[in-house]
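REQUEST FORM: STRUCTURE PREDICTION
Request ID: SP-0412
Submitted by: Lab K.M.
Chain count: 1
Length (residues): 263
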Amino acid sequence: MNHLLRDLAPIPASAWQQIDDEARRTLKAMLAARKLVDFDGPLGWQASAVNLGRTRSIAAPREGAEARLREVQPLVELAVAFEIARDEIDAIARGAKDADLDAVREAARSAALAEDHAVFHGFPAARIGGIVEAGAEGRCAITKDYQAYLGVVAEALQKLRDRGIGGPYAVALGPRCYTGLGKTLLGGFPVLEQLRQLVDGPIVSARRRLRTHGGTGFLDRLPRPRCEVGAPAPRREHDLPRADPRGRGAARLSVVSAARAHW
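STATUS: Completed
RESULT:
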Protein backbone atom coordinates (compact mmCIF):
# COMPACT_ATOMS: atom_id res chain seq x y z
CA MET A 1 0.00 0.00 0.00
CA ASN A 2 1.17 3.52 -0.74
CA HIS A 3 2.42 4.92 2.58
CA LEU A 4 0.91 8.31 1.69
CA LEU A 5 -2.51 6.68 1.24
CA ARG A 6 -3.06 8.22 -2.16
CA ASP A 7 -5.21 5.31 -3.19
CA LEU A 8 -7.75 6.33 -0.53
CA ALA A 9 -8.10 9.89 -1.80
CA PRO A 10 -10.86 10.78 -4.31
CA ILE A 11 -8.28 12.36 -6.60
CA PRO A 12 -7.87 11.32 -10.26
CA ALA A 13 -4.42 10.69 -11.65
CA SER A 14 -4.56 13.87 -13.76
CA ALA A 15 -5.08 15.98 -10.65
CA TRP A 16 -2.20 14.30 -8.83
CA GLN A 17 -0.02 15.00 -11.84
CA GLN A 18 -0.79 18.73 -11.73
CA ILE A 19 -0.33 18.86 -7.95
CA ASP A 20 3.04 17.09 -8.23
CA ASP A 21 4.20 19.29 -11.11
CA GLU A 22 3.20 22.51 -9.35
CA ALA A 23 4.87 21.51 -6.10
CA ARG A 24 8.00 20.41 -7.92
CA ARG A 25 8.28 23.71 -9.83
CA THR A 26 7.89 25.72 -6.64
CA LEU A 27 10.40 23.65 -4.71
CA LYS A 28 12.99 23.93 -7.47
CA ALA A 29 12.55 27.71 -7.55
CA MET A 30 12.55 28.17 -3.77
CA LEU A 31 15.13 25.73 -2.43
CA ALA A 32 18.41 27.61 -2.07
CA ALA A 33 20.48 25.47 0.30
CA ARG A 34 20.46 22.42 -1.97
CA LYS A 35 22.17 24.51 -4.65
CA LEU A 36 25.05 25.21 -2.26
CA VAL A 37 25.64 21.91 -0.51
CA ASP A 38 26.28 18.37 -1.69
CA PHE A 39 22.86 16.73 -1.83
CA ASP A 40 22.46 12.98 -1.41
CA GLY A 41 18.92 11.80 -2.04
CA PRO A 42 16.12 11.07 -2.25
CA LEU A 43 16.80 8.06 -0.04
CA GLY A 44 13.24 6.76 0.17
CA TRP A 45 10.71 6.29 2.92
CA GLN A 46 12.65 3.53 4.71
CA ALA A 47 15.75 5.69 5.28
CA SER A 48 15.88 7.03 8.83
CA ALA A 49 19.46 8.26 9.29
CA VAL A 50 22.73 8.89 7.47
CA ASN A 51 26.11 7.57 8.53
CA LEU A 52 28.61 10.15 9.83
CA GLY A 53 31.55 7.77 9.97
CA ARG A 54 32.27 8.70 13.59
CA THR A 55 31.98 6.94 16.96
CA ARG A 56 32.01 7.85 20.63
CA SER A 57 33.23 5.77 23.53
CA ILE A 58 30.65 4.32 25.92
CA ALA A 59 30.86 2.01 28.91
CA ALA A 60 31.33 -1.60 27.84
CA PRO A 61 28.86 -4.25 29.02
CA ARG A 62 31.73 -6.28 30.47
CA GLU A 63 35.11 -5.43 31.98
CA GLY A 64 38.01 -5.86 29.61
CA ALA A 65 35.98 -4.97 26.55
CA GLU A 66 35.85 -1.66 24.71
CA ALA A 67 32.62 -0.22 23.28
CA ARG A 68 32.15 2.53 20.76
CA LEU A 69 28.75 3.81 19.61
CA ARG A 70 28.34 4.72 15.94
CA GLU A 71 27.25 8.31 15.27
CA VAL A 72 24.43 8.90 12.79
CA GLN A 73 22.40 11.93 11.70
CA PRO A 74 18.66 11.23 12.00
CA LEU A 75 16.48 12.38 9.13
CA VAL A 76 13.78 14.98 9.73
CA GLU A 77 10.23 14.85 8.39
CA LEU A 78 8.79 18.26 7.51
CA ALA A 79 5.05 18.46 6.80
CA VAL A 80 2.97 21.40 5.57
CA ALA A 81 -0.81 21.05 5.32
CA PHE A 82 -2.86 22.51 2.47
CA GLU A 83 -6.38 22.29 1.06
CA ILE A 84 -7.69 22.16 -2.50
CA ALA A 85 -11.36 22.72 -3.34
CA ARG A 86 -13.17 19.74 -4.83
CA ASP A 87 -14.42 22.01 -7.61
CA GLU A 88 -10.80 22.57 -8.70
CA ILE A 89 -10.09 18.84 -8.61
CA ASP A 90 -13.13 18.20 -10.79
CA ALA A 91 -12.06 20.96 -13.17
CA ILE A 92 -8.66 19.32 -13.60
CA ALA A 93 -10.36 16.00 -14.34
CA ARG A 94 -12.34 17.75 -17.11
CA GLY A 95 -9.12 19.04 -18.66
CA ALA A 96 -8.71 22.47 -17.05
CA LYS A 97 -5.16 23.82 -17.29
CA ASP A 98 -5.70 26.85 -15.04
CA ALA A 99 -6.67 25.17 -11.76
CA ASP A 100 -6.27 27.20 -8.57
CA LEU A 101 -3.26 25.52 -6.97
CA ASP A 102 -2.13 28.48 -4.87
CA ALA A 103 -2.43 26.34 -1.75
CA VAL A 104 -0.01 23.79 -3.21
CA ARG A 105 2.48 26.50 -4.12
CA GLU A 106 2.28 28.06 -0.66
CA ALA A 107 2.76 24.68 1.02
CA ALA A 108 5.80 23.92 -1.13
CA ARG A 109 7.16 27.40 -0.40
CA SER A 110 6.78 26.88 3.35
CA ALA A 111 8.51 23.50 3.16
CA ALA A 112 11.39 25.00 1.18
CA LEU A 113 11.83 27.89 3.63
CA ALA A 114 11.82 25.47 6.56
CA GLU A 115 14.54 23.33 4.99
CA ASP A 116 16.64 26.36 4.05
CA HIS A 117 16.35 27.73 7.58
CA ALA A 118 17.58 24.41 9.01
CA VAL A 119 20.60 24.34 6.70
CA PHE A 120 21.54 28.03 6.95
CA HIS A 121 20.64 28.75 10.59
CA GLY A 122 20.49 25.32 12.15
CA PHE A 123 17.81 23.20 13.76
CA PRO A 124 19.00 22.31 17.28
CA ALA A 125 16.07 20.01 18.03
CA ALA A 126 17.12 17.88 15.05
CA ARG A 127 20.87 18.12 15.82
CA ILE A 128 21.50 20.17 12.68
CA GLY A 129 24.14 22.89 12.80
CA GLY A 130 23.64 25.90 10.52
CA ILE A 131 26.13 27.24 8.01
CA VAL A 132 25.81 30.84 9.22
CA GLU A 133 26.53 30.01 12.84
CA ALA A 134 29.38 27.66 11.86
CA GLY A 135 31.06 30.58 10.09
CA ALA A 136 30.73 33.08 12.94
CA GLU A 137 34.49 33.45 13.32
CA GLY A 138 36.32 35.61 10.82
CA ARG A 139 33.34 37.37 9.28
CA CYS A 140 33.73 40.09 6.67
CA ALA A 141 31.46 43.08 7.27
CA ILE A 142 29.26 44.46 4.51
CA THR A 143 27.28 47.67 4.06
CA LYS A 144 24.57 48.89 1.72
CA ASP A 145 27.27 49.95 -0.74
CA TYR A 146 26.80 47.18 -3.29
CA GLN A 147 29.84 48.25 -5.29
CA ALA A 148 31.97 47.28 -2.29
CA TYR A 149 30.74 43.66 -2.34
CA LEU A 150 33.44 42.57 -4.76
CA GLY A 151 36.11 43.59 -2.28
CA VAL A 152 34.28 41.90 0.60
CA VAL A 153 33.97 38.62 -1.28
CA ALA A 154 37.59 38.77 -2.40
CA GLU A 155 38.62 39.28 1.23
CA ALA A 156 36.45 36.36 2.38
CA LEU A 157 37.89 34.08 -0.27
CA GLN A 158 41.43 34.95 0.77
CA LYS A 159 40.63 34.20 4.41
CA LEU A 160 39.35 30.80 3.40
CA ARG A 161 42.39 30.05 1.30
CA ASP A 162 44.69 31.15 4.12
CA ARG A 163 43.01 28.54 6.31
CA GLY A 164 43.49 25.86 3.70
CA ILE A 165 39.82 25.72 2.70
CA GLY A 166 39.63 25.05 -1.02
CA GLY A 167 36.75 25.61 -3.40
CA PRO A 168 34.45 25.48 -5.08
CA TYR A 169 33.16 28.61 -3.35
CA ALA A 170 29.56 29.80 -3.43
CA VAL A 171 27.58 32.84 -2.30
CA ALA A 172 24.09 32.98 -0.80
CA LEU A 173 22.35 36.35 -0.83
CA GLY A 174 19.18 37.55 0.81
CA PRO A 175 16.49 39.09 -1.45
CA ARG A 176 17.60 42.68 -0.80
CA CYS A 177 21.25 41.99 -1.54
CA TYR A 178 20.57 39.84 -4.61
CA THR A 179 18.32 42.51 -6.12
CA GLY A 180 20.68 45.32 -5.16
CA LEU A 181 23.70 43.65 -6.76
CA GLY A 182 21.71 42.98 -9.92
CA LYS A 183 20.65 46.64 -10.21
CA THR A 184 23.99 48.22 -9.29
CA LEU A 185 26.46 48.88 -12.08
CA LEU A 186 30.23 49.07 -11.77
CA GLY A 187 32.15 49.94 -14.90
CA GLY A 188 28.96 49.55 -16.91
CA PHE A 189 28.29 45.97 -15.80
CA PRO A 190 26.06 44.66 -13.00
CA VAL A 191 28.01 43.92 -9.84
CA LEU A 192 26.22 40.57 -9.60
CA GLU A 193 27.70 39.42 -12.90
CA GLN A 194 31.16 40.58 -11.86
CA LEU A 195 30.75 38.67 -8.62
CA ARG A 196 30.26 35.49 -10.64
CA GLN A 197 33.80 35.89 -11.94
CA LEU A 198 35.20 35.64 -8.40
CA VAL A 199 33.59 32.37 -7.35
CA ASP A 200 33.55 29.02 -9.09
CA GLY A 201 30.33 27.85 -7.45
CA PRO A 202 26.73 29.07 -7.62
CA ILE A 203 25.37 32.41 -6.45
CA VAL A 204 21.88 31.84 -5.13
CA SER A 205 19.07 34.00 -3.83
CA ALA A 206 17.75 32.72 -0.51
CA ARG A 207 14.11 33.74 -0.22
CA ARG A 208 14.43 34.38 3.50
CA ARG A 209 16.89 36.86 4.95
CA LEU A 210 20.19 35.35 6.00
CA ARG A 211 20.88 36.67 9.48
CA THR A 212 24.44 37.35 10.55
CA HIS A 213 25.94 39.13 13.50
CA GLY A 214 25.87 42.50 11.77
CA GLY A 215 22.24 42.46 10.78
CA THR A 216 23.36 41.91 7.20
CA GLY A 217 21.64 39.84 4.58
CA PHE A 218 24.77 38.19 3.21
CA LEU A 219 26.24 34.78 3.90
CA ASP A 220 29.89 35.66 4.11
CA ARG A 221 31.33 32.23 4.85
CA LEU A 222 31.74 30.83 1.39
CA PRO A 223 33.20 27.29 1.46
CA ARG A 224 31.07 24.60 -0.06
CA PRO A 225 30.26 22.31 2.89
CA ARG A 226 29.65 18.61 2.75
CA CYS A 227 26.00 18.08 3.59
CA GLU A 228 24.01 14.87 3.63
CA VAL A 229 20.34 15.33 2.88
CA GLY A 230 17.70 12.63 2.57
CA ALA A 231 14.24 13.00 1.06
CA PRO A 232 11.37 10.72 0.11
CA ALA A 233 11.34 8.89 -3.17
CA PRO A 234 10.14 10.98 -6.17
CA ARG A 235 6.41 11.63 -6.45
CA ARG A 236 5.85 10.75 -2.79
CA GLU A 237 5.86 14.26 -1.42
CA HIS A 238 2.11 14.89 -1.26
CA ASP A 239 -0.89 13.04 0.00
CA LEU A 240 -4.58 13.74 0.19
CA PRO A 241 -5.93 10.99 2.43
CA ARG A 242 -9.46 12.23 2.95
CA ALA A 243 -12.16 14.67 1.86
CA ASP A 244 -14.50 16.38 4.31
CA PRO A 245 -18.29 16.85 3.85
CA ARG A 246 -17.85 20.46 2.81
CA GLY A 247 -16.36 19.34 -0.46
CA ARG A 248 -12.78 20.27 0.33
CA GLY A 249 -9.81 18.00 0.59
CA ALA A 250 -7.17 17.98 3.29
CA ALA A 251 -3.66 17.23 2.15
CA ARG A 252 -0.18 17.12 3.54
CA LEU A 253 3.03 18.03 1.78
CA SER A 254 5.81 15.95 3.27
CA VAL A 255 9.51 16.52 2.72
CA VAL A 256 11.93 14.31 4.65
CA SER A 257 15.34 15.87 4.99
CA ALA A 258 18.34 16.16 7.24
CA ALA A 259 21.52 18.11 6.81
CA ARG A 260 24.85 18.30 8.58
CA ALA A 261 27.68 20.50 7.34
CA HIS A 262 31.27 19.27 7.63
CA TRP A 263 33.92 21.98 7.58
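NOTES: Residues 188 and 201 are 24 Å apart (CA to CA).
Reviewed by: T.R.
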